[in-house]
Amino acid sequence: MSKMKITEIRLGKISVPLRVPFKTALRSVNSVEDVIVEIHTDTGAVGYGEAPPTGVITGDTSLSVIGAFRDHIGKVLTGRDVDEFEDLMILINGCIEKNTSAKAAADMALWDLYGQLYGIPVYKLLGGSRKSIATDITISVNEPEEMARDSISASERGFDCLKVKVGREPEKDIARLKAIRDAVGYGVKLRIDANQGWKPKEAVRILRGMENEGLDIEFVEQPVNAHDIEGLKYVTDRVGIPVLADESVFSPVDALKVLQMRAADLVNIKLMKCGGIYNALRIAALAELHGVECMIGCMLESKLSVNAAVHLACAKRVITKVDLDGPALCLEDPIIGGAVFDEKDITVSDEPGLGIKGVRGIQYID
User: Fold this and answer.
1) Phi, psi of 205, deg, nearest 5
2) Which of 85, 120, 126 is nearest to 106 (CA)?
3) What CA–CA distance (Å, rounded) separates 312 from 125?
4) Is 251 a domain residue?
5) CA dihedral 225, 228, 234, 239 (to 10 degrees)
6) Considering the domain boundaries, does residue 101 fall inside one?
7) Are residues 159 and 74 in the same domain?
8) Of 7, 97, 175, 319, which is least packed with CB atoms within 10 Å of its CB?
């Protein structure tokens, strides 16, 4: 029986500057500042994970991720065999409440090791539906003219699907979309993300206004407050533009509620919200049972953890929309190995596990 025992967990930090500041209805960020996790084993194999501190969405901060590993996750994993995979997943999920980004980092590092143990890439372990996917790119919320300029430069980089941040000044949102649509034409898909910025009736009014302007919006992401599932359903039932649930769906239990209520047309899976690939698979299965397609999304993450999401997206056919633009927003890429990101086109690696070979510029935390 092949064995691979977990010997230690090392934590570090990376800092990666962004090309332009990332602005949403909730926050503004200039660089990716993430916690890197290395799970070391007695065979010399290392599994890599990453957790972004997205306090405003997940509640996770750098210090809370580090504390979760030191006081909880590290204690239940060290000394265990990677082969006890299901048990390890249950331990990660049960050893601490919330802390989904820390759990996701541990989860992806274990999938990485599990794939290495059996010499198979994770996307093939999970189903292996395809080898490449195409992502959108995010346009931050700014004045209409600036958003139009950003959209043109994204289009010139080859992106033919833009995810436009709205929701900060609702009365300006239609003007923003009109400026972008005028700038890039109708050959480019536009999807919008309100990041919980609207009230339900306001969302219906704005979205109907966009429909009346013929702006051809592919879908709207999280128009209302995350906890307002009734409000989400109110919008979904009253507009023609499909509605995607994002912050409303953290766990498989959340997904089940949204799907059973028919509160949204689509569900967004993010590893950092649900705690990793293990729970993401459950959300995908629930969505499939309800005949609902999924988007795979990311926070502001480097290629390391976005790469894990790429493996999931390449494995599962129910994931039809891709919002994995973290690496495209970064000025540099410190991650060695993993999927190849060529602007909108992402190709998964056939290396065993998740294919990550190392991280440049990591600052280890003693």
Assistant:
1) -60, -45
2) 85
3) 10
4) yes
5) 30
6) yes
7) no
8) 97
Residue 80 domain boundaries: 6-119+360-365
Domain harbouring 48, CATH code? 3.30.390.10
77-124 confidence digits (pLDDT tens): 999 999 999 999 999 999 999 999 999 999 999 999 999 999 999 999
77 & 137 share domain: no
pLDDT for residue 300: 92
Q: Are residues 228 and 270 in the same domain?
A: yes
CA distances to 6, 26, 95, 229, 362 from 10, rounded to whole Å, are: 11, 31, 19, 39, 11
Burial 314-335 (b: 16+ CB within 10 A, else e): bbbebbebbbbbbbbbbeeebb
Q: Is 165 a catalytic residue?
A: yes
**Is 306 within a domain?**
yes
Are 337 and 301 spatial neighbours (Cβ–Cβ below 8 Å)?
Answer: no
Where does residue 182 rank: exposed (0-12), middle (13-18), buried (19+ CB within 10 A)? exposed
pLDDT at residue 1, rounded to an integer: 59
240: tokens are 């023609």
Which phi and psi (to 5°) does residue 151 adopt? -70, -40
* Pair 93, 132 in one domain: no
Examine the domain organization and report whether 86 and 154 are in the same domain.
Answer: no
Q: Is 270 one of the annotated active-site residues of the chain? A: yes
Catalytic residue among 233, 270, 273, 344: 270
The secondary structure element, H or E, covering residue 362 is none
Asked whether residue 1 is assigned to any structural domain, the reply reads no
CATH number at residue 345: 3.20.20.120
| Residue of 103, 163, 165, 321 marked active site | 165
Query: pTM for the whole thing?
Result: 0.97
Q: What is the pLDDT of residue 366?
A: 85
Q: What is the pLDDT of residues 158-198, one digit of tens each?
A: 999 999 999 999 889 999 999 999 999 999 999 999 999 99
Q: Please list the rounded mean pLDDT of every run of 10 residues in the chain (366 residues).
A: 90 97 93 98 98 96 98 98 98 98 98 98 97 97 97 98 95 96 98 97 97 98 98 98 98 98 98 98 98 97 98 98 97 98 98 98 96
Beta strands in 24-69 (DSSP E): 28-41, 46-51
